[in-house]
Amino acid sequence: MASTFGKLLQISVFGQSHGAAIGVTMDGLPAGLPVDMDKLQAFLARRAPGQGAWATPRKEADAVEILSGLVDGVTCGAPLTAVIRNTNTRSGDYAGLHDCPRPGHADYPAEVKYKGAQDAAGGGHFSGRLTAPICIAGGICLQLLAREGVLLAAHLASVGSAADTPFDPLRPELDQVQKDFPVLSLEAGEAMRQEIAAAKAEGDSVGGVIECAAVGLPVGLGEPMFGGMENRIAQMVFGIPAVKGVEFGAGFGAARLRGSQNNDPYVVENSEIRAKTNHAGGILGGITNGMPLIFRAAFKPTPSIAKAQESVSLAAMESKNLIVHGRHDPCIAPRAVPVVEAAAAIAIYDALLEWKARA
Amino acid sequence: MASTFGKLLQISVFGQSHGAAIGVTMDGLPAGLPVDMDKLQAFLARRAPGQGAWATPRKEADAVEILSGLVDGVTCGAPLTAVIRNTNTRSGDYAGLHDCPRPGHADYPAEVKYKGAQDAAGGGHFSGRLTAPICIAGGICLQLLAREGVLLAAHLASVGSAADTPFDPLRPELDQVQKDFPVLSLEAGEAMRQEIAAAKAEGDSVGGVIECAAVGLPVGLGEPMFGGMENRIAQMVFGIPAVKGVEFGAGFGAARLRGSQNNDPYVVENSEIRAKTNHAGGILGGITNGMPLIFRAAFKPTPSIAKAQESVSLAAMESKNLIVHGRHDPCIAPRAVPVVEAAAAIAIYDALLEWKARA
Amino acid sequence: MASTFGKLLQISVFGQSHGAAIGVTMDGLPAGLPVDMDKLQAFLARRAPGQGAWATPRKEADAVEILSGLVDGVTCGAPLTAVIRNTNTRSGDYAGLHDCPRPGHADYPAEVKYKGAQDAAGGGHFSGRLTAPICIAGGICLQLLAREGVLLAAHLASVGSAADTPFDPLRPELDQVQKDFPVLSLEAGEAMRQEIAAAKAEGDSVGGVIECAAVGLPVGLGEPMFGGMENRIAQMVFGIPAVKGVEFGAGFGAARLRGSQNNDPYVVENSEIRAKTNHAGGILGGITNGMPLIFRAAFKPTPSIAKAQESVSLAAMESKNLIVHGRHDPCIAPRAVPVVEAAAAIAIYDALLEWKARA
Amino acid sequence: MASTFGKLLQISVFGQSHGAAIGVTMDGLPAGLPVDMDKLQAFLARRAPGQGAWATPRKEADAVEILSGLVDGVTCGAPLTAVIRNTNTRSGDYAGLHDCPRPGHADYPAEVKYKGAQDAAGGGHFSGRLTAPICIAGGICLQLLAREGVLLAAHLASVGSAADTPFDPLRPELDQVQKDFPVLSLEAGEAMRQEIAAAKAEGDSVGGVIECAAVGLPVGLGEPMFGGMENRIAQMVFGIPAVKGVEFGAGFGAARLRGSQNNDPYVVENSEIRAKTNHAGGILGGITNGMPLIFRAAFKPTPSIAKAQESVSLAAMESKNLIVHGRHDPCIAPRAVPVVEAAAAIAIYDALLEWKARA
Q1: pTM to 2 decimals?
Q2: What does the alpha-carbon distance between residue C68 and residue C329 come to, in Å, rounded to a whole number?
Q3: Mean pLDDT over residues D145-151, rounded?
Q4: Residue C161 Cα, gap to closest chain A Cα (Å)
Q5: Which of A173, A312, C15, C293 has the fewest CB atoms within 10 Å, i.e. the most exposed one?
Q6: pLDDT, tens digit, for every residue of B246-269?
């Protein structure tokens, strides 16, 4: 397994969806930094289910318990471990999943990889529930980054064919993301909700894209080649279940541009070097250039759908019709918005610590 | 710096464009495996410049010298280090680059990060020339993967607005990629060459997308969360200069699909589990599912263009017009095709070694 | 912090002595392997306090709770996290330790390193209590190693000036280590207990040496230079509080020998290559040679003693007499015997997994 | 293989004794720091052979060539790679070593591990010659540490039964180590030379112990548990061929002491916290306490001796008498003194960078 990420801040995520608990250890936090637990819990609430018609009605308490690393709410230098108890554990019968893998899920490769011993209940370690520990670690990193003047926010760039206004790449409107449904444009939000409702009505699901921006980064974060900001953020963000693509700045669109269009000219503004455009997404050669860091992550549609699907019986080695029961998000993207912020915050904070080492 | 990649096969890339030499160390190769040096040199020739109107006329010998790790052409278990001498070193005057950064290049963030001490000549460690060591390491991994029944190939998916036929995601036509210009469709190749020629005629450049496929992978490669195949390949591929996006299978397109469209139904074929479609790109939960592994990487247009560009003088802190001299590829993507194969091969071979450890 | 160890099996230890819980995450265990929890609990009981006159009378329950990674007692491939609740938390007043550091403890460097924010209660993350998570991880590794035919045991080589019979380096008597007091010679054990009792009677403490042996290792474990068995075991064993020296085979004694004495001649025995002596401790060039792997670790005397000691007030920057209260082991070595076994087992199992990757 | 060390400064050593070249890559050096190449070459000369009756008369040029990472003698932020050409390559016939392993060498485990494909010539990657790249990396780290006020020196603590005066643990006399033979006491040096001459006269060899001290370290270097200074230095120093033991401060001697003897009382001296004694060797809980960091490494006698030795033919699986030809150091310890300094400097500089990240 490799549920561990980072160099100076090492994140280790553990737990299965229906095991005793899920959690995360953060090894490498500087000492003496306050963590606001209410703020953290509020951040986690943004990914919690049961928030609207566009999400699963299932309830999760998701109360964070800190086992170590904080004394009186302040980091003490020791690894910080936080857990969330699973209240709804192994209630169902998951033997079926070992035999008949759900299309689009990790069931089949996990069955082979783990020789039939994997925890199939609720998706085990592959469950979207494991994004809660990412949010704990990322929520703490967001607080620490804010102390350094770095702010992050994400919004739904699209759901199906409904698209939000993109962030202004020069001055992303981080504080204008709506609270109840994370978009910039109310109209776009309405169109997205209709896409989700339409998919749900058909027992189907739909994908989406999340855009994330960070401002206040110093020039010089990230290391060249394999330790660049793009490499780190991509390694982290692809750890979120359902992500199938990551792009920075103009991204895939840059492949259709001319150099004269894509290059960001430099200007002096208020005695500071700035770029007039930001097709680079704030990263050149893997290193931050002081402009807003902007990236997008593509989420596939939730694989668990109510419609009948073709699968196979691994025991019988023959075709089998599969009906997936249970309540599932018709679109995972809205709840994934804080997860993308969290993932980016972890990667950026780790790079910030490394940057300080050689500053 | 973090020019190091991998867990069981650790790749360490070194060198600057106009330094004494560039090279790579591969630490962790199993012993007793033959390396065909002619084949490796032929692989490297695919990324060499001077191959056609669409590339820079500059010549590079790129003769690989093995310093360690091979005895009589066979891996001996010790780290394998290979170097390529730079014959064209520090000939020009690069003092200007320290003062007037080229838009779209790493010049400006590198100047700040390295306190003015970075090697600006020819792009230094950020030069596209550093993809040659990636090709050495990757070319060796391609040979070792072939021994395990794993084959890889890449082609130009698009240049500007000209698009090639995509790989058949169920049976990618690896052996049908054209030798002289890496496309599947001759017509598409012609259109791409025209795009490149048009950009060049205007002193401009153009971007492109490369699609890569691997077949023959066992089910179960990759580790969940941050050690998945997507995470590893993305971390590696974003190490290639100019890459701004990476997507797997349906990628960003999956975000526009319904679950019922995107899920890949399972069937039994010749007593094997297969998926009827391959929107997953061969990866579920970060783990290979036995289907072809398919991904695309977006390359921005070459930032070095002949057109005048707006930049600044860092010393004077005022605007300055910049003319970039020298011969540059009007499109980097054609020469980057073997680099993408190499990068993927390194990431896959490292994952294969890890898989064997727990098999 | 760097409470993380290993390459293919990554161990992450967390917790403070008087925090909510201590624990460990093991990331990288192969799937499908049974873990005997009773056996694990029995192993942990060997390091538990309150076992005799030579140990502290303090009681600790040390009941292991598995949060993840096991399904029905079998590894499922996901990270295994286990915790032990601290029942005796922050009861005392530890403010004094922030001002007046205990000689021989980490108090003073931790106070400076963590800017006064470290958890001083009971030694925090530096407490000997953190060896319990090492024993959880190591106890599991011991079970997995036994399935591969690898057996380990340790004994007290000395306490103060009282010395046990050393292991036979060719055939270490692993099963002859006494259960109640871990020595080979009952007489030596009696002499050690008297050393400990004498120190205790004076409100003092005494140090000791632990010898550990492993048999059944294949030839070829370990990687050269910095990944050798000596490097890995030393990196791990120095993680046990109070260890100040580690030596393999003849160790420091080899420095006094001639080459003709220290070299281990090879012979053929029952169609196997064997060494006639084992000054190498089973390791040559960092790699196992098929002979028993033998090492020793030196433990300093418990720094917490009842005698008055000279310290300083950090606030007043002046001398201060310190009396350390509480019940402490007059000799940590007896209880550290299973910890050394555990530490070695972790390092060896990690190396075994790596060996399989390239076998 | 695992010839890679470090976290923020990653050292990758490559080469075989009789291959084309040996060398090292240092990834992670801060930019803008001057490296004095004459000083580096002088440092390397201290480990070069042919310096006296106590060393092999073989000559090695050991001229360092910098391939990357320096521009005009200043670190540029890119990985620094340095190589030394092997002038004396594969001249002999080493087929014999594949069949008849030398006792005390890595020959036999390497033969098995690398399936007969290892480079046996001159010891291959296991040769003491590979300490030259460690000296390159360490020599550079020594220069960088000196800029931070950290000074290191080592001396021969003993050869066979002849012992030097130890360093004063409170104020180690770093500048009093003799230039021509690295001891503090001229008499001790004479006795050591006699030990070596006596061993040589008999076609034998002898072991030794090296003591190393560092002063000027800030309080707080090192991370707890597995990232402590003891763990890091031990992991590095055991990478030097022939090292069989490492101890810090009182080391194994501490195991014979009482706590009241071993604990180092604190005092205030010139408004600074100091310890009155230094049994801890400057490290508590893995973290520097501001006192001199002191450790010793035990070197076994050179395994290559002129005397006939018992070995086996691996092909015939029968006993075989072995005569090792060639010129070998009768004692490796004198030439290993700068290597120990180098190894310690690498580990300490890496820890210093990490410390800055969270300072």
Answers
A1: 0.97
A2: 33
A3: 98
A4: 36
A5: A173
A6: 999 999 999 999 999 999 999 999
Q: Does C246 contact D249 at a Cβ distance shorter than 8 Å?
A: no
Residue C163 has pLDDT above 60, yes or no: yes
Q: What is the per-residue pLDDT across C199-238, written as a single tens digit (0 to 9) for each?
A: 999 999 999 999 999 999 999 999 999 999 999 999 999 9
pLDDT at position B1? 42
Q: Indicate yes or no: CB of B27 within 8 angstroms of CB of D15.
A: no
CA distance readout (Å), C139 to A63, C126, C127, C149, C346: 31, 21, 20, 15, 9
Q: Does B285 touch chain C (CB under 8 A)?
A: no
Chain B residues within 8 A of D29 when measuring between CB atoms? 1
Q: Which regions of chain B are under pLDDT 70?
A: 1-2, 50-61, 88-93
C105 confidence band (pLDDT: 50, 70, 90) = very high
What's the pLDDT score for residue C1? 42
- Give the nearest partner residue to A305 out of B126, B250, B259, using CB atoms: B259
Beta bridge partners, C163, equal C158
The reply to whether residue B238 touches residue A251, judged by beta carbons under 8 angstroms, is no
**C357 in B contact zone (CB under 8 Å):** yes
Closest alpha carbon to A342 in A85, A54, A130: A130
Q: How confident is the model at residue C55 (pLDDT cuts 50, 70, 90)?
A: low
Residue D240's contacts (CB-CB under 8 Å, 6 or more residues apart) are D131, D134, D297, D336, D339, D340, D343
pLDDT over 70 percentage in chain C: 94
Which residues are bridge partners to B268 per DSSP?
A: B273
ipTM confidence score: 0.96
Q: Would residue A318 be called left, alpha or beta, if left means φ above 0 and alpha means ψ between -120 and 50 degrees?
A: beta
**Mean pLDDT score across all residues of chain C:** 94
pLDDT over 90 percentage in chain D: 88
Give the closest of B78, B354, B359 to C8, CB-based. Answer: B354
Calculate mean pLDDT across residues D49-71. Answer: 74
Using alpha carbons, select from C353, C335, C337 the residue that is nearest to residue C56: C335
Distance CA D271, CA D2 (A): 45
For residue C21, CA distances in Å to A152, C1, C133 come to: 32, 18, 10
Mean pLDDT, chain D, as a whole number? Answer: 94
Closest to D78 measured CA to CA, from A348, A352, B87, B117: B117
How far apart CA B154 and CA B297 sit, in angstroms, is: 10
Contact D244 C266 (CB under 8 A): no
> How many CB atoms are located within 10 Å of the residue A180 CB?
9
Residue type present at position C15: G
What's the Cα-to-Cα distance from C332 to each of C56, C243, D33, rounded to whole Å?
10, 10, 46
Cα angle value C79/B246/A348 (rounded, 5°): 60
Q: Is B262 on the interface with A (CB under 8 A)?
A: yes
Q: Which of D66, D76, D116 is facing B124, going by the closest CB pair?
A: D76
Contact assignment for D224 to C1 by CB distance below 8 Å:
yes
Best of D230, D258, D321, D340 to disrupt the C interface by mutation (most C CBs within 10 Å)?
D258
- Using one digit for the tens of pLDDT, what is the confidence trace for D262-276? 999 999 999 999 999
Q: What does residue D356 show for φ and ψ, rounded to 5 degrees?
A: -65, -30
Nearest neighbour of C31 by CB, restricted to A69, A81, A115? A115
Size of interface A-D (CB pairs under 8 A): 32
In sequence order, what DSSP letters do the residues of D255-317 get, joined into one string? Answer: GGSBHHHHS--EEEETTEEEESS-TTTTEETTEE-SSPEEEEEEEPPPS--SS-EEEEETTTT
Q: Which residue of A has its CA nearest to C31?
A: A114
User: Beta C74-75 vs C70-71: how paired, if at all?
Assistant: antiparallel
By DSSP bridging, strand D70-71 and strand D74-75 are antiparallel
Residue to substitute from C1, C18, C112, interface A, most A β-carbons within 10 A: C1
Asked if D285 is an interface residue toward chain A (Cβ–Cβ < 8 A), one would say no
